[in-house]
Amino acid sequence: MENRITTLFGIRYPVVAGGMVWCSGWRLAAAVSEAGGLGLIGSGSMTPELLREHIRKCRAATSRPFGVNVPLAYRYAPQLMDVITEERVPAVFTSAGNPATWTARLHDAGCRVAHVVSSSKFALKSREAGVDAVVAEGFEAGGHNGREETTTMALVPQVRQAVDLPLIAAGGIATGAGMLAAFALGAEGCQLGTRFALSRESSACEAFKRRCVEVQEGGTILTLKKVIPTRLVRNGFCRTVEEAESRGADAEELSALIGRGRPKRGIFEGDLDEGELEIGQIAALIEDLPPAGEILRRLSEVSTSELSIPVGTLTGSTLLAGRGPCIRVRMQAVGSADASLRNAFSAAGINQTRHQILLHVDVYTGILLPGFTASTKVSNEIAVAETVIVGSVPETYTYFSTAPEEQEQYAQDYIMNKG
Q1: Whether the predicted pLDDT of 384 surpasses 80
Q2: Of 105 and 388, the one with more pLDDT
Q3: Average pLDDT over residues 13-28
Q4: Are 46 and 17 in contact (CB under 8 A)?
Q5: Is 120 exposed, middle or buried (0-12, 13-18, 19+ CB in 10 A)?
Q6: Residue range 215-219: average pLDDT?
Q7: Edge-to-edge strand order for the sheet containing 397-401?
Q8: What's the first-to-final CA gap in the chain, in angstroms?
Q9: What is the percentage of the chain residues whose pLDDT exceeds 90?
Q10: What value, to the nearest 5°, has the Cα angle with vertex 130 and ends 171 and 156?
Q11: In 234-376, beta strands by DSSP E
Q12: DSSP, residue by residue, 100-126
């Protein structure tokens, strides 16, 4: 698949592994990048010297692009930025702070910069700061969250409407079906944290991983809102926090209760009762701890059990994606459509290797699949009666039909409108 996210970061799949504290070391980052995504090293739990070591080990393990996530409120953030610019890291994802402080310097060092936002207001500020992309993260996500408590489903289209930057969705995404939902809302890529935290290469301890795989629906809670809103697994420490909050504890008391090293204690050292266990709501859907490469493979091959739509519901004409190149398809149960579809594009002068489709319908199953070019084979169960290529300007549409007598007129319309 090729779109603005894959082009920006030089990756095969529009998938980013979130840079999580105590989970995202060089092994995980390298494994994700090697499999075609963008692996991030989570620097929020590292000293500058340790980060430099991880960067160099990651570079030795893969020749593909990788990045570093930097929480800008972290006490070592300035020193971490020194290391990043000295090491010429290809991509930097910033969060929890003002991206204007660092974006220009990172650009001077050749870094691509994305900033994580929890609202369209912060997306606009990120655009003003000159970032290359934004990550719209809903509060389903694990760990630190925005105070707005906006879900990914509500946040992504609002950010899409506010800015025209390349957009990555995050929060509550762990499957191909989740990625498709994000694409339909206007995202061009997805950042997955929890799914990669619970992978073989994650540096989190095995006890933490097993505990998170056991999490059921409702097994996490957003707490510590007077300090930094944080999603935690319900355990002894979490109950202590809830009790303190219920009696009106202020930020100072809650900060003292947290102390220092609580996330390391839970995620890295395996204190499952008194440690801070940060994980997202989507953990309830995760049942295994596969290698990162296997996760990428699953994401790129949406299974028929994840998003099955009865063929009968696909009649009519429906826009299947937001801004950017996509295909709108009206289908009916007639013979093979492969040749007629390719002929329609050919008649319009479309280079099939350059015009990408964000959502494509596998007509054997009714599954919506991301990332196929116009030349992707359409099975003979359903024919495409009408396709619409939507350009970067949402109001501009060019129509194509499989009807031979209409193709010439549509080709002329394409030349006049898109020329």
Answers
A1: no
A2: 105
A3: 96
A4: no
A5: buried
A6: 96
A7: 326-332, 383-390, 397-401
A8: 25
A9: 64
A10: 25
A11: 326-332, 356-362, 367-373
A12: GGTHHHHHHTT-EEEEEESSHHHHHHH
CB 270 within 8 A of CB 205: yes
Contacts of 27 (CB under 8 A, 6+ apart): 61, 201, 203
CA-CA distance, 293 to 44, in Å (whole number)? 24
User: Cβ atoms within 10 A of the Cβ of 161, count?
Assistant: 13
The position carrying tokens 């959502």 is 359
Q: If residue 398 lies in a helix (H) or strand (E), which one and from where to where?
A: strand 397-401
Tens of pLDDT, residues 118-130: 999 999 999 999 9
pLDDT band at 372 (very low <50, low <70, confident <90, very high): very low
Angle at 186 between CA 183 and CA 190, to 5 degrees: 50
Cα(348)–Cα(411) distance, integer angstroms: 4
Q: Count Cβ atoms below 10 Å from residue 303 Cβ, excluding itself.
A: 13
Residue 285 DSSP one-character state: G
What confidence tier does 416 reach under pLDDT thresholds 50, 70, 90? very low
Reported as a pLDDT band with limits 50, 70 and 90, residue 346 is: low
Q: Is residue 157 classed as helix, strand or coil in its secondary structure?
A: helix
